[in-house]
Amino acid sequence: MFYTYIVASKRNGTICTGSTDDIIKRVYEHREKVRRGFTAKYGVSSLVWYEQRGSRETAFRRERQIKEWRRSWKLRLIEQDNPTWRDLYEDLVPGINDPQPPGLPGPPDTP
Fold this sequence. Notes:
This protein is α+β, with helices and mostly antiparallel strands. It contains five helices and three strands; from the N terminus they run ββααβααα.
């Protein structure tokens, strides 16, 4: 599968459009600031919109198309499916933001 996606810093904040063949890995990289660059600098890490595409080429073309749009069109695209700008990464990786239950041991002590 191939994906076109939009990540954001917060609702109506800085946004960035991309394409990938591994959306979980790519959004993880945004969240953890694995790559230096625009998204790390501006804290753009919340997956607010994505769609599956049939090929790498169509995902890339859709990315380029969206990048040419006015900002208002991009916001409308996000809000038609995700009006609260919820982080959709949580749908892809269930439990990712759940706190550790109390009483569970932490990491082992290291000597």
